[in-house]
Q: What sequence folds into this?
């Protein structure tokens, strides 16, 4: 890695130059980060210790919550420290690590959301086959396949990125190290690699989007045959999930489908927030507030802790 670049460190961008705005940005990010950790940790706790939530849906929800805590930790704490201290330098090794982890967690997040859509489809459209199709062994295998394939996917992109030569500016116009910002700094020919990124993003994100869309088309067509009260329960759970997936996918595609040109607009820094910070923040809110069993389990945990403190 060191032999392929003349740059020894990179400089990340802040959302603002003034100290007061940087402080406000840091406090906002820190608040979102703490709420995200607390919400996801609460879901992990209740889905682990409540025997009533020992089902495939909550198995994947627990995995998603653990993933979200890791995902948001890759970018937010470092961005807060950079804003508060004004020192936005990051080493090449640190940048490579961040690139790998962001790609890895984004990939696995997308696959987990797709698997959860499949779980919902089987539960509603094929209830008699649900125990066999979504057995514990099958759930574990799908989880391991997601995690291992993510390692390969992220490893390939990280390796390709840091084989490039960086001999121009070392200022990354983003609050974290991302592949596209690094490509803009390279003096190597990046056209073939950019096409690879574009192709892989369309295949992975597009494939997951098509699978999720088809799953929900079948779900909604089946649910319309249910009584009105049951329809409301299903829609109240599915619609927020669709919104999170839509925000996640649309923000990724908006970033990666843009032409590879240097840009300094604030929009280029805000868009990645919608696939790095917003989904981990919204997932626990959606799955706890829209799920009666999770809400009851959360109340039990809170009441148990309250009486133990007394």
A:
């Amino acid at each position: 890695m060191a032999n392929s670049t003349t740059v020894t460190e990179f400089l990340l961008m802040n959302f603002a130059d003034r100290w007061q705005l940087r402080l406000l940005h840091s406090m906002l990010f820190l608040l979102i980060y703490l709420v995200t950790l607390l919400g996801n940790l609460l879901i992990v706790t209740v889905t682990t210790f409540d025997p009533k939530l020992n089902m495939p849906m909550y198995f994947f929800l627990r995995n998603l919550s653990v993933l979200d805590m890791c995902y948001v930790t890759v970018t937010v704490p470092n961005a807060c420290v950079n804003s508060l201290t004004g020192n936005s330098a990051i080493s090449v090794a640190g940048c490579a690590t961040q690139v790998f982890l962001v790609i890895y967690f984004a990939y696995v997040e997308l696959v987990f959301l797709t698997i959860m859509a499949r779980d919902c489809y089987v539960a509603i459209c094929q209830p008699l086959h649900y125990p066999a199709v979504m057995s514990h062994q099958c759930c574990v295998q799908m989880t391991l396949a997601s995690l291992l394939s993510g390692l390969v996917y992220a490893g390939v992109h990280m390796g390709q990125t840091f084989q490039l030569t960086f001999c121009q500016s070392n200022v990354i116009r983003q609050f974290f190290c991302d592949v596209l910002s690094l490509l803009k700094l390279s003096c190597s020919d990046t056209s073939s690699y950019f096409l690879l990124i574009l192709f892989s993003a369309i295949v992975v994100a597009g494939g997951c989007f098509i699978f999720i869309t088809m799953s929900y088309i079948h779900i909604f067509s089946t649910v319309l045959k249910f009584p009105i009260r049951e329809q409301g329960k299903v829609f109240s759970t599915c619609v927020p999930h669709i919104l999170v997936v839509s925000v996640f996918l649309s923000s990724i595609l908006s970033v990666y489908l843009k032409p590879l040109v240097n840009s300094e607009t604030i929009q280029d820094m805000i868009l990645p927030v919608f696939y790095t910070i917003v989904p981990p923040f919204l997932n626990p809110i959606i799955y706890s507030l829209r799920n009666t069993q999770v809400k009851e389990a959360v109340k039990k945990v809170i009441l148990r802790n309250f009486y133990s403190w007394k």
